[in-house]
Design goal:
- The chain is about 40% helix and about 15% strand.
- The protein is α/β, with parallel strands linked by helices.
- The chain has one domain: TIM Barrel (Alpha-Beta Barrel), CATH 3.20.20.
- Strands 1-2-3-4-5-6-7-8 form an 8-stranded parallel beta sheet.
- Helix 8 packs across helix 9.
- It starts with a strand and ends in a 5-residue tail after the last helix.
- The structure holds nickel (II) ion.
- Nickel (II) ion binds next to loops.
């Protein structure tokens, strides 16, 4: 089994969903689907029920924190209690790339969701962090008590990766690692301990080579793994073995 820890299968536009699912099943890939807004947590909840190979995270994404209300955590709690396929909180975090005008609101909603994950028994956090490396670690250090965390679509330096690993945070690598000019991500993928490595696609975005320019899909996670194997001078089976073992440790239901 191969595990794709971040894949918006529900957001495909060009690829029919049934085709994407068939491609996952053909290669024995399990994918975890994140949500983005306080409304689409319901959509993700229903969507993952339809396909055996899908699981989900619910949470409110930094760019969508304005959709977060007093009711959101109550909604999240009832979804988690009713659907065992919701296995983490995400994607949540901080993004200072597009719009810095509501940094404080981003932080507030991030903190509330971390505390919620802690209260729910330590549900894993799927973290979106873009140009907000210092603040993200500061908040995790202060507020995260008992939840494991994944840095999704890792885009930081090797130094930042080491800071994450020191804290037990997993590093999830996506299609960017296949881009010729992505020297930072390649360096991280080549050098971090295998015990902290995870695979993802973040489809429909960030399509790996050789499909760059087309719509990304979940099954292309194999191209991510192949590139990482090449960078580490090992075989792809070793990458699958390690990343599946790591994901199963985080999410025992996948075992
Ligand atoms: Ni995403």
């Amino acid at each position: 089994m191969i595990i794709n820890t971040h894949s918006h299968v529900n957001m495909l536009r060009e690829t029919p969903i049934e085709t994407a699912i068939e491609n996952l099943n053909k290669q024995n890939i399990t994918a975890i689907v994140p949500s983005s807004t306080a409304q689409d947590i319901f959509e993700v909840n229903e969507f993952i029920k339809k396909y055996d190979c899908l699981y989900g995270y619910i949470g409110v994404f930094p760019e969508e924190v304005k959709t977060f209300t007093d009711k959101t955590l109550t909604d999240m709690e009832s979804l988690i209690r009713s659907n065992p396929k919701i296995i983490g909180i995400g994607e949540i975090g901080l993004d200072y790339y597009w719009d810095k005008s509501f940094k404080d609101l981003q932080k507030e909603v991030f903190i509330k969701q971390i505390e919620f994950a802690n209260e729910m028994g330590g549900l894993p956090l799927n973290i979106h962090c873009r140009e907000a490396f210092g603040d993200t670690l500061e908040i995790l250090d202060k507020y995260n008590k008992n939840s494991k965390a994944i840095m999704h679509c890792f885009s930081g330096s090797i130094e930042f990766a080491k800071e994450c690993i020191k804290r037990g945070i997993y590093i999830s690598i996506g299609g960017v690692v296949t881009f010729k000019n992505a020297s930072k991500v390649k360096e991280v993928a080549a050098n971090i301990p295998l015990e902290y490595l995870l695979l993802e696609t973040d489809d429909p975005y960030l399509t790996p080579v050789p499909y760059r320019g087309k719509e990304n899909q979940s099954a292309y996670v194999t191209y991510v793994a192949e590139e990482i194997a090449k960078l580490r001078a090992t075989n792809v089976e070793e990458i699958y073995r390690a990343t599946t073992e790591n994901a199963c440790k985080l999410f025992p239901i996948l075992n």
